[in-house]
Amino acid sequence: MLRRLLWRYMRPYRWLLAGVLVFQFASAMAMLYLPRLNADIIDKGVSQGDTGYIWRTGGLMLAISLGQILAAIIATFLAARAAMQAGRDIRDEVYERVSGFSEHEISQFGAGSLITRNTNDVQQVQMLAMMGSTMLVSAPLLAIGGIIMALRQDVGLSWLIGVSVPALLIIAGLVISRMVPLFRSYQVKLDTVNLVMREQLTGVRVVRAFVRETIEAERFRAANTDIMVVGRKVGSLFVALFPMVMLVLNVTIVGVIWYGGIEIDKGGVQIGTLLAFMQYVGQILFGVLMASFMTVMIPRASVSAERISEVLASTSTLVEAAHPVRELPRPGEIAFEDVTYAYPEAEHPVLAGITFTAEPGQTVALIGSTGSGKTTLVSLIPRLFDTTSGTVRFAGVDVRELEMETLWAGIGLVPQRPFLFAGTVASNLRLGREDADDGELWEALEIAQASDFVSQMEGGLDARIAQGGTNVSGGQRQRLAIARAILRRPAVLIFDDSFSALDLATDARLRQALWRELPEVTKVVVAQRVSTVTDADAILVLEDGRIAGIGTHAELLETNETYREIAESQLAVEAGS
């Protein structure tokens, strides 16, 4: 999985990688050649008192060292550039894939996990790509080339290499085999930390309102402790690797000095040769160490690559038709034909046998108890998910046959929980239509009964809005979201319980303005209050996912027991208050 992911996203930058290989090769060859020159200075220059040879060879060593440094810098720069661009491409594709997910896929992965996969997981793969590019040539060249050069210096001491290199490989293999399951567990627990943190930040008002700060702090502490325990185990293994490697390295060098000293005493080895051999041993072990470091990074990057690939391999249940319809024959018309919808793995459908038609310009209201399926029903119109059976038609065309952009362009949706983005009032409104001028913004605010408080905000249309709209009240947030949908000038406006935070007077003024200013627009209104739906052309009473009644306010009061009970209960509450 990791190999396929790297090949796919690093391939466009193969010329950068080619440059990395060339400069890494030059750097490694320079490092391998320097000990040989050092031995020549000692054996030929110092021993014979040839000062000119020392200066010439020393100058050559200095030039090669500067070239090696320059080559290493260029290789690292090119590797970092290729890896960062590949990381950018992965994040872009993950984001685009997630943006096309339906509610089902998003809930399946979880928002916290998707964020982690597009940040931390991509970073792990990106880091491996950069480190792997820089070490891909230098590590094997230093190890293999060092062995060849060491054997050329002295074959008699080579048995030390035959002992130390396998010892290093065994140590690295044992450590890495224990790290793989720990890395997998670490990423899962990181998802949990992000999930808990995100929930607590989003629901901070609920936490404080119910005085659950201590309980939530303990919940976060438990998640944090879990990841700490796994991280400590990973860190312990990682930290243990380097002392063991250094132990092997130092023991090997001691062995070289010990046996090399004996050979020098016998006259079989020169001092320069022994020093060069020691440097080559260091380079060999350094190459093995770099390879070990890479193999430590690979398991974690492999886990991250699997998690990223899961997202990229997931396809949305919302599939556009092979030849989508791009024209709307009857703009504003909505028709449900025997629609049934069941959430995945649910025992019973949340909607069953829904059939009704909304003509262009009509106002259709949905009312019913909590859990009766109102939000699910209106979510089928913009195709946030597809029906289990039956057909939803928009403008006379099955929504599954319509081009998604065409469908969404004809709908203005105000969700149950209106969300505002960080920016200004104007930038949030222009999400509905980018080319709208200030006059059109104020017109939409006027219809949504929001112009009064916006004009009083510092900066007016340029007033700052915090992320999520947390610096305005719930009612103001709803009215700004309604203005944003109005500005879109769609054929259909859907209000999913979008008047719940408004007082009765503001609710009435807003509905009157909508009916007066937008008579040609079809309006679908989900409401809890009977007063919000009294002037609708048709009211659908939902009960247990089925239509229990349909008609005007007056008709339902006379003929529908469920609607009459809702109306009488609300009238009794209002009278009591």
Please count the helical segments: 19
Q: Which percent range fits the helix content?
A: 55-70%
Distance between the termini: 64 Å
CATH level 4 superfamily of the largest domain: ABC transporter type 1, transmembrane domain
Task: Describe the protein in words.
The protein has 577 residues and is α/β, with parallel strands linked by helices. It is built from 19 helices and twelve strands. The chain has helices at 2-10, 14-46, 51-99, 103-109, 111-153, 159-202, 204-209, 213-266, 271-313, 374-379, 404-409, 425-429, 438-447, 451-456, 474-487, 504-517, 530-533, 553-559, 561-576; strands at residues 334-341, 351-358, 363-368, 389-394, 397-398, 411-414, 423-424, 464-465, 492-496, 522-526, 538-543, 546-551. The chain has a six-stranded mixed beta sheet with strand order 6-9-10-3-11-12. It has a four-stranded antiparallel beta sheet with strand order 2-1-4-5, with no helix packed on it. Strands 7-8 form a two-stranded antiparallel ribbon. Strand 4 and strand 5 form a beta hairpin.
